[in-house]
């Protein structure tokens, strides 16, 4: 499984992000109870895999780098020190120094152990500059670790490589988190560099063994069809430099050595994250030819996909990621769905598992249906009567906005006596909204967000201005 856990932070007083302030009286502050809630929901997502045991190998993104001076306790030592104490009971109220200073990987492994997901060892990515780097990658595995390497890249998190033993076969697992900004040609140059570092190491492995088993995963901040989706990019990191592709025939005849598992599902199921009303595939699991040749360890066809659990890591309608919010007592988990794949060891030669023809659409999938069922949405006039904890559970949901347009440099809508800012990411749609006469009665749809300490609504589609 590859999982971007959206800034899983510890509880010390040192953080490079102002979203994770521990002290003070702000209702949005990061508290032990909020961490306990998020860890519990992460464990519940993992339990949906592998018959309740959770994945044997986890590629993780966005674990906070430990910024506490002198904090050196390992997850193993932390578990021993807190034996017999449940993480939920430990994460209550003001913490003693030895708990407040514990790194997030210690809390994560402790929570997983307490939730019955035991046996994980952690390999963390290097931090070169603790004053600049807030987060890093990690690999968690129950399987024997044979070797570890770190690959430093430009303006992104260090790539972590772990060689693990799977039934006597070596598998090279790579955890990545490339430079952000998937749709930006300017940042694509950095992702090209990130991909180049990775490709150089892959070439070393393939030179030693052309049939090596490799799983290359994580948040590449690129779509599987990056080149098709953004034709202005003459060169992409993921397709042109890393050489991720989706033609099984090329993999079989040796003209390609990597296969992106997004190509093993229907195009309508290719989604791990939502941004401005479009689905994306920023999370990846990419395998080598050695894991798709019908010999030894192999990918199980049809087993790849996003782990989508409405009510836990996804909203019920429309089904989109239930991202983390620190509002109230906190809610949600991540702005990314985890993705997973299953593998098996063949007792004898078998048919190669990959057969689906390559198909790379040039358009992003719409995250919201064009014709939304308005009857499923609550009126925003109910929000002021909700408690902070109830509001926290509603952030990310779509509401009916019934009120008057209030204008302004940043447009807003007045619902009852409460004013809400409107965020309209599409420039053409923003012009339409701003053309509305101030004081005009409106009945629109909006997705509730929490931004810079205030509730606001995002309007993603022209159809949302026609709610009836």
Q: What do you see in this structure?
A:
The chain is α+β, with helices and mostly antiparallel strands and 468 residues long. The protein has 2 domains: 2-345, 4-Layer Sandwich (Deoxyribonuclease I, Chain A), CATH 3.60.10.10; 374-466, Nucleic acid-binding proteins (OB fold (Dihydrolipoamide Acetyltransferase, E2P)). The protein is built from 11 helices and 22 strands. The strands form 6 sheets. Strands 5-6-7-8-12-9 form a 6-stranded mixed β-sheet, with no helix packed on it. Helix 1 (32-47) packs across helix 5 (104-114) and helix 2 (75-81) packs across helix 5. The longest helix is centred in the middle third of the chain and has 24 residues, at 185-208. It is globular, with a radius of gyration of 23 Å. The model has no long low-confidence stretch (mean pLDDT 96).
Strand content: 25-35%
Mean pLDDT: 96
Low-confidence parts lasting 5 or more residues at pLDDT below 50? none
Number of helices: 11
Task: Kindly give the count of domains.
Answer: 2
Number-wise, the strands total 22
* Broad CATH class of the largest domain: Alpha Beta
Write a concise keyword list for the protein shown above.
2 domains, Deoxyribonuclease I, Chain A, OB fold (Dihydrolipoamide Acetyltransferase, E2P), five-stranded mixed barrel
């Amino acid at each position: 499984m590859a999982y971007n856990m959206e800034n899983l932070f510890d509880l010390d007083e040192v953080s490079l992000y102002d979203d994770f302030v521990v002290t003070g009286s702000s209702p949005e502050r990061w508290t032990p109870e909020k961490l306990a809630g998020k860890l519990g929901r992460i464990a519940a997502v993992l339990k949906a895999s592998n018959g309740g045991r959770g994945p044997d190998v986890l590629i993780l993104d966005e674990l906070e780098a430990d910024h506490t001076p002198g904090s050196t306790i390992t997850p193993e030592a932390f578990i021993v020190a807190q034996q017999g104490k449940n993480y939920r009971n430990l994460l209550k109220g003001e913490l003693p120094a030895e708990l407040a200073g514990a790194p997030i990987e210690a809390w994560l492994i402790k929570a997983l152990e307490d939730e019955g997901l035991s046996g994980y060892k952690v390999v963390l990515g290097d931090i070169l500059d603790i004053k600049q780097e807030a987060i890093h990658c990690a690999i968690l595995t129950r399987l024997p670790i044979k070797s570890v390497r770190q690959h430093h890249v430009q303006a992104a998190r260090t790539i972590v490589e772990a060689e693990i033993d799977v039934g006597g076969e070596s598998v090279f697992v790579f955890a990545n988190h490339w430079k952000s900004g998937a749709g930006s040609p300017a940042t694509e140059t950095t992702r090209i560099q990130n991909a180049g570092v990775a490709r150089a190491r892959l070439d070393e492995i393939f030179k030693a063994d052309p049939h090596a088993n490799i799983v290359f995963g994580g948040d590449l901040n690129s779509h599987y069809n990056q080149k098709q989706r953004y034709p202005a990019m003459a060169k992409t990191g993921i397709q042109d430099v890393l050489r991720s592709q989706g033609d099984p025939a090329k993999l079989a005849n040796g003209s390609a050595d990597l296969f992106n598992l997004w190509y093993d599902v229907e195009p309508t199921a290719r989604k791990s994250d939502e941004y401005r009303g479009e689905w994306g595939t920023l999370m990846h699991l990419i395998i080598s030819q050695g894991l798709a040749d019908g010999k030894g360890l192999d990918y199980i066809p049809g087993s790849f996909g996003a782990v989508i659990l409405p009510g836990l890591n996804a909203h019920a309608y429309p089904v989109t990621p239930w991202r983390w919010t620190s509002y109230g007592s906190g809610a949600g988990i991540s702005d990314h769905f985890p993705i997973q794949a299953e593998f098996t060891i063949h007792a004898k030669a078998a048919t190669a598992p990959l057969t689906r023809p390559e198909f790379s659409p040039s358009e992003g999938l719409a995250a919201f249906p064009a014709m939304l069922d308005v009857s499923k949405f609550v009126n925003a006039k109910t929000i002021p009567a909700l408690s902070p904890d109830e509001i926290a559970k509603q952030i990310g949901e779509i509401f009916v906005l019934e009120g008057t347009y209030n204008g302004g440099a940043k447009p807003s809508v007045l619902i009852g006596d409460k004013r809400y800012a409107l965020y309209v990411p599409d420039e053409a749609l923003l012009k339409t909204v701003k053309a509305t006469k101030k004081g005009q009665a409106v009945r629109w749809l909006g997705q509730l967000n929490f931004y810079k300490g205030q509730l606001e609504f995002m309007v993603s589609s022209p159809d949302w201005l026609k709610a009836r």
